[in-house]
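README, section 4: Worked example with a bound small molecule

Sections 1 through 3 covered apo chains. Here we extend the same pipeline to holo records, where the ligand is supplied as SMILES alongside the sequence. The molecule in this example is zinc ion. Nothing else about the input changes; the structure line simply encodes the ligand pose together with the chain.
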Amino acid sequence: MGFKIKKQHDTPGDTGTTEQVQTTVAPPTAAQTAAAPPPGSTPSWMKTGADADAAFEQQSANKAEFGNALDKRKQLPWEFFMKPGEEKRITFLDGHLSTDPAEQGRLLYSAFRFHTVRNVKFPNKWDTYVCLADEPDGCPLCEAGDESTWVAVFPIIDHTPFKKQDGSTVQHEIKLFVAKSITMKLLQKKAAKLGGLAYQTFDMSRTDAKMARVGDQMEHVGEAPLEALVKKFPQHGLPLGPDWYLKSVPYFTREEILAMGYGAQAPGQPGVGPLGNTTTPPPMGDTAIGANVPMDDDLPF
Ligand SMILES: [Zn+2]
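The generated complex, written as structure tokens:
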């Protein structure tokens, strides 16, 4: 069995000559085979080479800081607040008077500068941050144009039961009572009368939306002795140590604040968060379901 191979020179009319085709295209250089143009020849929004590596690394770092900040926020106690017209019963866990006779019964407290800013992802939500203006690297929220406010902070127990989003009900939680200057005047007055605020129970009420979120009326209910509180709320580890403040205020590092989406100048960041009207932050979410607090012989709530 044979194959018939048709050879070129067998083609009728073939002259037997072959034309040489000269290639005029030079072999590609290494630069031309690369997928991206060399650094320096690209627009600012495009990264190549080491710059591209750095962008990915920056993104991973931002994600890690963002995760850290969220975890940290979850572990902080809730900030105490009231809706307009509400009344809530609370017990102060700190707020002693100075024993120095020269200070004439001055209320002792810890003060911080706080920023209250809209959450970048959820603009209906407001978050507080300790101002970093006194830190060496400065405060990204100040740089973004937000003004911080001096506040005094006290640990309290909120005796009002409230329903969480998951449907469970909690009561007697330790919360952060954040007092601006107008509230401090009220607290000073009550403290002077009672010999301090620590382990005193009050009914707080908020007249209307213009009044402080922690309330503008304060009615003394009675004393809640530490020994009785320790017995009733073993989960709280009372009395609270001085490190409670360090663990409980919303302190976030510069990197964490930037990773949350705030800040103006940081490279690789999403830009300035929707700051702005910080004068009337709305309530932040716990829903009171009633004030039927069981009475206790030793405790006024
Ligand atoms: Zn600041």
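What to look for in the output: Residues 115, 131-133, 139, 141-142, 148 surround zinc ion (CB under 6 Å). The first helix runs from residue 30 to 33.

Section 5 describes how to batch many such records.
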